[in-house]
Specification:
By secondary structure, the chain is α+β, with helices and mostly antiparallel strands. Helix content is 31%, strand content 31%. Strands 4-5-6-9-8-7 form a six-stranded antiparallel sheet. Helix 1 packs parallel to helix 3, helix 2 crosses helix 4 and helix 3 packs across helix 4. The protein binds 2-acetamido-2-deoxy-6-O-phosphono-alpha-D-glucopyranose. 2-acetamido-2-deoxy-6-O-phosphono-alpha-D-glucopyranose binds next to helix 5, strand 6, helix 7, strand 8 and strand 9.
Length: 259
Amino acid sequence: MDASKTIKQYFRTVTAELVNKKSPLPLYYQIEEHIKALIESGELKPGDVLPSERELAESFTISRMTVRQAITNLVNKNLLYRKKGSGTYVSHKKFEQSLHGLTSFSEDMRSRGLDPGNKLIHFELSSPTEELIDHFTLEEDDLVYKIKRIRLANGEPMAIETSYIPVKLLPGLSQKVLSSSLYRYAEEENGIKLGHATQSLEASAATEEDAKHLQLDAGDPVLFIQRETFLEDGAPFELVKSTYRGDKYKYKMNIERLR
Ligand code: 16G
C-alpha cells in the first residue's frame, strides 16, 4: 500500500468525528490543528502527499472553501507546500545554517550526519571578466577557473554553486578533485590558509535551469548567496555565486545589543 493511500484511508476513517460543528472554534481552525497534530506526531511525514481538497471536504463533511482556508494557513506557516498540478505535501524541516564561522559545504553536511556529494556540471579555465580582474586584482593574461557544481546531501540536490578561483592559487585543480571537498584540497593538499569571507543573501525565484537541477518548479523561492572568501593574509581566494533551495534552508545569526 502506498503512503498516500494510507493517509487517505486515515482521513476517511477518523476525520468526520474530529470536526465539532458545535464548537465556537472555526471549522478551518479545527482542521488546521488536526493536520498540524498529525505532522507533529509523525503520522504525516515530510514529503507525504495530502488527499485532495475535495476528498478532505468529503471526509470532514465540510465545504471545500473551509478545507482550502485550513491548507492555505498551513502553507503560510511552511508546514505544507503546494506543487502545481501535483498536490499538497508535508514540508521538510529546513537546515538551520549558522552565519557564524567559515565552513565548507562538505563540513556543514557532515556535521548534520549527512553524506555530502557533488555533481560537476561545468569546469573551465578562462580569461577573467572585468568583474573578476577587479575582484582578484588579476593581470589580463591570468586565468581563472569557473566551476559549477550541484551540491548534494544524501544524494538530494541542495544548491547550485558557481565558483571562480584564480588558477595561480590552485594550479593542480582538476575535475577529479572537485568530486570531493574544494576547501579540503586547498587547505590540506596545497597549504592554503583560508581566513574569512563576506557573504550576502537575497531572496530570488528559481529559473528554469535552477528548477531542473534542484528538483523545484520554476518560480519557486530560492536564496541567492554570494560569498567572497579571503586568505589569512587578506588576498581574495574565491568568488562564489550560489542558489540554495528556499524550502531547505534557513539562516541563523546571533546578534548582540549595540550600546
Ligand atoms: C560552501 C561555500 C562555497 C565554498 C564551498 C566549499 C557558501 C554560501 N558557500 O558551499 O563558497 O566554495 O562551501 O565546499 O557557504 P567544499 O569544500 O565542500 O567543496
